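yo

u said u wanted the structure for the complex thing, so here. seqs first:
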Amino acid sequence: MQVLKIATAGSVDDGKSTLIGRLLYDTKSLTDDKLEAIEKTSKQKGYDYLDFSLATDGLVAEREQGITIDVAHIYFSTANKSYIIADTPGHVEYTRNMVTGASTSQAAIILIDARKGVIEQTNRHFFINNLLRIKDFVVAINKMDLVGFSEEVYNDIKADFEKLMAKRDYQEQKITFIPVSALKGDNVVNRSENTPWYSGQTLLEHLEAIDLQDIYNEGTPRFPVQYVIRPKTDEFHDFRGFAGKVYGGELSVGDEVVVLPSMTRSKIKNIYFYDEEYQTAPRRSSVTITLKDEVNVSRGDMLVKVGDLPTIDKQLTATVAWMDAENLTAGSKYVVQHGVNKVLAKVDAIEHKIHPDYSGVEENVDALEMNDIAKLRLRLNNPIFYDRFKEHRTNGSFIMIDTRTNNTAGVGFIE
Amino acid sequence: MLEEIKTIEAEKRLDKPRANALEHEAIYIIREVAAQFERPVLLFSGGKDSITLVRLAQKAFWPAKIPFPLLHIDTGHNFPETIAFRDRLVEELGVELIVRKVQDSIDQGKVVEETGKYASRNILQTTTLLDAIEELKFDACIGGARRDEEKARAKERIFSVRDDFGQWDEKNQRPELFDMLNGQIEHGQNVRVFPISNWTELDVWSYIQKENIEIPSIYFAHRRKTFLRDGLIWSAEDDVVFRAEDEAVEERTVRFRTVGDMSCTAAVESTADTIDKVVAEIRSSKISERGARIDDKRSEAAMEKRKQQGYF
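structre next:
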């Protein structure tokens, strides 16, 4: 069974939690005891319908205020796929939370309130999904029950959204519009009789049809070394295995590789996964590799195929989404974590701030606040081995860690 | 030995099902812990989730041994089958087992035993755990919690930073992006790490089935002296569970779906006596796993509260 990770986005009260609750309910994924708890609490609160958001809003403060504060991960399966939904909050901290939720997702659902249509925040949601190269996403036009299931309203919103689509720089993205009522269950799992004018798939039908092979395709093989395995037992006296995860393509026994940064060449001798030996390590497998030659490899180094080198540099330009309450200022220093490799970095320049509502850029900026997105130039104390984010999701991204608080303060997409 | 290892077509086993994707993700996380921290430990309860973790850790570092000890916070109310199982497992693995007892915390007057019908030592574990972390200076504790277990768990990061009081600040968690896990902490803080965050109960069972992992016998259907309370079936084999005079003991065929402290873990009526039958049963179950954990039913926010106090 395949796993599909989905991020949701929408403004406060657009009904994200309700939509997820509805998906769980209509796919019969809610167990009796959970359903009972929802019924009980809904009744206590005096609602005349089941409040499905209670299935996902897990924190006291969330239930008190009826809003989602932090990303929750929700699980359900069908006979065909297994789903992980990152339910990201839509209010104040939208940018940082959305980036967090979307970074590990292959698909996204943007909710629009049919009564409000495309609003400023919709632009941001779309911008971030583009920035993160989310390949498949659904625009769920929700609360159709409150606009009398009007085809005209739906078409108007769709037309507005299509204007936005013209502005994106990631044209390969697949966008699907679906009119839904999360509260009443129209077109979420079950086809609605209230929208005879809509002939497309329901939300679940669409999700079921997404081809994951296509989505996972993320570039050429990169093998960042996480850990060096040296058993030093009688049986494995000379064993030196390099443990890590394969990103991008595949690596096979016999492949000629270059060890970065030493640039030493060798050949892959064995690929192990536990006590089994493999000819090929596919994408995203956590294997252990041994090399033909006695070469010096440590954590943070990277194995790549000969003739397929990434950029090796102490300078880089990246689009950064700032996530910390402490501002970023030009000239300040951070730890840059690129994969499992850490280096010190200095912000050489903030080139410009980007308005995620597609209204352009702002020059002469000397600080970034939480949720700002900007193009930065960074100088590193040691070179890293990177690809452009557009070509390699994993090897083209990094996080910035505040050296005083140790907080993950920002995320960067390398250009 | 190495020559004897069988070569298997990679695509056949490595690239396909959900279980594999989750397994590779978990192994990556466990390796990050070993690499980023000085004194990591694996929290071992003897339950299916921590047994799964142990197998994943074995895989992560093979052919080397697991490079960190196991820590068992012994409530003193464990199922005897679990303790026997635990001791055999560490013997086999050749890893260090550290045991800290809730009874000692009680004797030292640090915690007070609950009384009454719902008395449980589950909450008391937190103090013993925090003391052990401080005493042994662990900077990372690997735990088998899953996000599908409970609503507050669903909010937890994979690397979850706790302050030097062991507390979780649920409103101020570090963002976690792509595969990059930030384990930088200040002296005194520690990180709780949850490698099987994205697994569901069924994933764990399917994995145990696929890997042919041994688990304590209480997970399989057996005859047991039990009594009923609040619609749940409780073990009457030992005297750690409070039982009122009018709560009659009856033998039933039951199994345990989750194995916590005996005093807060109810059994379910079941005839599933093999792993295949257990997987089939979970697949068709209409009750969530934690439906049988009375400590979660104390209030809507029971788990969140315990986590804020340092519960793992």
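The mean pLDDT of chain A is 90. DSSP finds eight helices and 24 strands in chain A.
cya
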